[in-house]
Design brief:
79% of the residues lie in helices and 0% in strands. By secondary structure, the chain is mainly alpha-helical.
Length: 92
């Protein structure tokens, strides 16, 4: 697994460590899922729904480009599988 994949899984694990219902899961679900399975245009549109700052949008575009470049489809499916398990947890 690449560093980007490991980072994505680490972020997902941090959601579980935080525990409790702090309303982070719905927001992270809206942000994490499109970066793994959406097109670059869909991801940028989702980012622009929340923040139109040009630096944020440029960073989001760079993140999506790196995810698509570095993660294999198998890596993305593994990340989505873990995220789905986290989101279905009673802690989320």
């Amino acid at each position: 697994m690449t560093r980007a994949g490991a980072l994505l899984l680490l972020c997902a694990a941090l959601l579980l460590i935080a525990g409790g219902n702090c309303d982070i899961c719905p927001g992270s679900e809206r942000g994490c899922l499109p970066v793994c399975r959406g097109t670059p245009e869909e991801y940028i549109a989702k980012v622009k729904e929340y923040n139109t700052n040009s630096a944020i949008v440029a960073n989001a575009r760079s993140l999506k480009d790196r995810v698509d470049e570095k993660l294999t489809e198998e890596d993305k499916q593994n990340a989505l599988s873990i995220l789905n398990k986290i989101y279905s947890s009673s802690l989320c």
